[in-house]
Amino acid sequence: LTHPAKPIGNKVISQLLVSEPAPLSAIPDSSPSSTELRSLLTLCDLLNRELLVLIGWAKHIPGFSALSLVDQMALLQGGWMEVLVLSVVSRSLGSADELVFADNLRLAEAQCRAAGLSDLYTALRHLTRKYQQMGLSPEELVTLKAMTLANSDAANLEGAEAVQRFRDGLHEALQEHESGHTHSHPGELHRAGRLLMTLPLLRQTAARAVDTFCRLHRERRVPMHKLFLEMLDNKI
Amino acid sequence: KEKHKILHRLLQNSTTPVDL
Predict the structure, then answer these.
(1) CA distance linking residue A19 with residue A200, whole number of Å
(2) What is the pLDDT, as a whole number, of residue B15?
(3) A30: exposed, middle or buried (C-beta count within 10 Å: 0-12, 13-18, 19+)?
(4) Beta-strand runs (E) in A117-224
(5) Rounded mean pLDDT for each run of 10 residues along chain A, 236 residues in total
(6) Who's near A219: CB < 8 A, 6+ residues apart?
(7) At what angle do helices A138-150 and A69-92 cross, to 10 degrees?
(8) Residues sharing a CB contact under 8 Å with residue A41, sequence separation 6 or more, in sequence order
(9) What would you report as the CA-atom Rg of chain A, rounded to the nearest whole angstrom?
(10) How far apart are CA A75 and CA A165, in angstroms?
């Protein structure tokens, strides 16, 4: 007897899975500053490098590179922090109370508080708990990350229809994936919808993160890198 | 565009070295 070949899965999601960047390591700051300031310096350096990787990653999302350069910029300017937040959240899924920015940069609540990141800690852990409860899979994570960028509600798009098609393609991939995986989440016929309904909280969390880094910049506590500042500048 | 020089450069050409 021959068994039918297992479906190879959704092409878009397979592409997203192979395009997932390797996790970065933090480069611990060695300046003679306080522990708290060193944590912030290390974090800002890591996030700046992560942002650089994120822009390279976006080009691998099926359909992204076909958009006009102006629209690519608009989507990234709108959605970069949401993508960064989702990345940190996904790394923190295995932890009960830490924010795992990198394997070697895990901050517990007390460390975040000492560094002035209490608000960010609370918001990121809230979102992390939500995805922990849902049992977010790697396939769902990569699709949500891409959708976040596609759905960044940028104004004045050059090719609004092309962006809509880009968004629809990702949505279709998510729906196709979920309709084929009802066995892994029995009774969750509405899983795709439930995942999409987490996006408002993701946006709210990213706004909190933007506020936090704008405040750090205003207080001039941490010198920020050029790329990070450029992206932040668009949010002020 | 002028405001987002680094992003613009990164998207235009992935091989351009960027001063971070």
Answers:
(1) 25
(2) 52
(3) exposed
(4) none
(5) 56 95 93 87 95 95 95 96 98 97 96 94 98 97 97 92 96 92 69 96 98 92 90 82
(6) none
(7) 150
(8) A29, A31, A33, A222, A223
(9) 19
(10) 14
- At residue A234's C-alpha, the angle toward residues A230 and A236, to 5°, is 110
Place of tokens 């949401």: A82
A225, B20 Cβ separation under 8 angstroms: yes
Instruction: Indicate if ipTM > 0.85.
Output: no
Q: State the Cα–Cα distance between residues A202 and A179, nearest whole angstrom.
A: 24
Contact residues, B window 1-20, toward A, CB-based 8 Å cutoff: 1, 3-8, 10-12, 14, 18-20
Which of A70, A72, A226 comes nearest B20 by C-beta?
Answer: A226
Contact list in A for residue B18 (CB cut-off 8 A) is 52, 227
Residue of B nearest to A230 (CA): B4
